[in-house]
Amino acid sequence: MDLQAIFNPESVAVIGASATPNKVGFNCLESIVYGGFQGKIFPVHPRYEEILGLKTYRNILEIEEKIDLAVIALNQYTTTEIIDDCASKGVKGIISIAGGFREVGDEGKELEKRLVEKAKQYGIPLLGPNTLGVINTDVNFYSTFYPMKLKKGGISIITQSGGVGLTILYKLMEEKVGVSKWIGVGNRSVIDFPDVIKYLEKDPSTKVIGIFMEGTERAREFLEIAKKVVLKKPVVVFKVGKSKKVDFSAQTHTGSTVGDYNLYKSAFKQFGIITADSVRELIAKCKALSLQPVPEGDNLGILTISAGPSIVILDMIADVCKMPEFHEKTINKVKERMGENPPLVIKNPLDVAASGFMPDDFRALSEAVIQDPEVNAFLAITIQHRHWRFPTPEIIEVVKNSSIPVVVCYPAEYKVVEKEIEKLAENGIPAYSTPEEAAWGIKGLFEYKHIKERFT
Q1: Which terminus of the chain has fewer CB atoms gathered within 10 Å of its CB, N or C?
Q2: Triad 111, 114, 118: Cα angle to 5°
């Protein structure tokens, strides 16, 4: 299935475009315009001559130029009928926004059946129905009905839910990491998870694929394709369905059943898919995997000014990595910085307490741990304080001279630490404001290391 027209169209018709801001059709059109799309945009509505400064057409057949993609923002009944006009116009892809299909019952199932039959009859890839749309930051194409602009980056998200998908986007914004693609698959009537993963496998700007999944009828195909993809780029899935009580909610949301949760989790592990149990965990893992290389060994070195956060992190990652003893040279470097008889045990994790409060001291101690020959990945932990700043410039300086992956944990108020997280992300360093998120980030790196070893 050729999805180029869905992700990278040269021309777009918004069928059902509106001049009223509280309408979905208006917001779909504004999203494309506001996002900075450089292709041709054709609003379609029978009663308007102009919307947002763009000439508006009564129907798609009146447009004189070719149309690559039709974004249909009409109700479920009209959507089904308008496919014929799209086919007559020669569109190469359709995004069907409307709900009201199989998720609402028998009448909706029949409408969706007709929609699928027509799309397949005409050979048109159709995303949806019941979807929020698509984002491709590479070409500034935003076709959702939530106008926004995103930082460009290496994370691509596939989501079965528009609401959860938006939650993921907003969390990515907060974490100061960029997005490559965002795809709401909705009811997955024609284009499903396997089709999108195939596309993202070959997408050069996608470094990590994150997925929110309720369920899929093409589970085996999804697993087989994902197994091939993980050799090139990690796949991280947040799958709901621990409780069977959500099954009815999922059916009335996107027309899917959640399936056996434990069976899914077991299959994901077998086929090399990294799992997450929340949006926060999904984002934490995707963030680290998009910014840092995987470790070359199993050993983690930790430097902290407080033992507590490192204990929380160790408790969460003990199953994926090891904590080696420091080399004698490392111990000597620490003593050189702190004095021959420092009031602490020089071990890994290295809890230096007040000796690491000053940024220059933290830099020197970080350098000592990173340069230890037994350390394959490094975690730095320091905490917000009124009288000393975060050692962000110093950490960036040390990392520039290192080849091992680095993760930073800055427990702090978000309003205080936000700029630090952004500066570190700009330099390719994932930083987190809680120990749990830092642990998920580190865990994702080691999990992907073990997956690559298993499949290569």
Answers
A1: C
A2: 140
